[in-house]
Amino acid sequence: MKKLLRLLVIQLFTAAVVLGAFSNPVHAEVVETDAQLAAEWQAAWEFYKFYECATAPLPLTGRSQVKRDISIDIDAPIEHVFAAYSNVNNHLGLHSFLKRVVTHEDRTEAGTHYIDFTAIEDIPVVAGIPVTSKTHAQQRIHPDGFYYETDSWSLPNVVTHQKIVFEELGDGGTRVTEHLTFEASVLLIDFTVTNGVSSHEETQEGLKEAIESGAL
C-alpha cells in the first residue's frame, strides 16, 4: 500500500508540473513558435519516459490500457503506399481536427528514420468552441521492413503506441494494418479509444482515396 501511495504521489506531482508548464488560456490569436513547441516536446518526452518507468504496472496507478487493430486495403504497390502513408504531413486535411504538424528533428540512424514532431489539433468542445490540443510524438520508420512505429503523449497524460505494418497483396495492392495501444486514466480510456480509433479510421479512408486517385 505504501508503494502504491508513493507511485500515485509521483504521478500526480509530475503531472501537475507538466500541466503547469503546458497550460495556457485558450485564445485564437496565441500561436506558439516552433522553438516553444520543441521545448514542450522535450519536456513531454522526458515526462513520458519517467512516467512509463515510475508507474508501471498500469492498474496500480488508476490507468488502463486498451489495444485495437484496424486494417485497410489500398489498390497501389507497397512501395508507393508506404512512402505516402508514412509521411505524417500527408495526413493534414484528412481529419477535421488536425491543423498543423511541426517537425523538431529528422534524422536517420542505423537504417531507421526518426522524426520528432508535434501535431496541433483544434478540437470543438462546449458550444463548438475549439480547444487547441498538442500531441508530442516520435515516429520511427523502418523502410527495409515496410513498417513504422509512433509513440505519442498529450494532455491529460494520454499515451498512444502505434505500429503500422504494410503487407503486399497478390493482386498488386497493399494491406495496411495499424496496431494501436491506448493508455489513459480509467475515467478517460473509453473516450480516448473511441475517438482515437475513429480518427485513425477516418485518416485511413482519406489516405486510401488520395493514393488510389493519384493525389498522393
N→C terminal distance: 55 Å
Tell me the Rg in angstroms: 18 Å
Helix and strand sequence? HHEHEEEEEEH
**Beta content:** 35-45%
Number of helices, counting only DSSP H or I runs of 4 residues or more = 4
Q: What class, by secondary structure content?
A: alpha+beta
The major sheet is characterized as: 7 strands, antiparallel
DSSP strand count: 7
Note the overall shape. Answer: globular
> Strand order across the biggest sheet?
1-7-6-5-4-3-2
- What is the helix fraction of residues, given as a range? 25-40%
Low-confidence stretches: 1-29
> Average pLDDT, to the nearest integer?
83
Q: How would you describe this protein?
A:
The chain is an alpha+beta fold and 216 residues long. The chain is 35% helix and 38% strand. It is built from four helices and seven strands. The chain has helices spanning 2-22, 34-54, 78-85, 189-213; strands at residues 63-74, 98-109, 112-124, 130-142, 147-154, 158-168, 174-185. It has a seven-stranded antiparallel sheet with strand order 1-7-6-5-4-3-2, with helices on both faces. Helix 1 (2-22) runs antiparallel to helix 2. The longest helix has 25 residues, at 189-213. The radius of gyration is 18 Å and the shape is globular. It starts with a helix and ends with a helix. InterPro entries: START-like_dom_sf. Keywords: Signal. This is SRPBCC family protein.
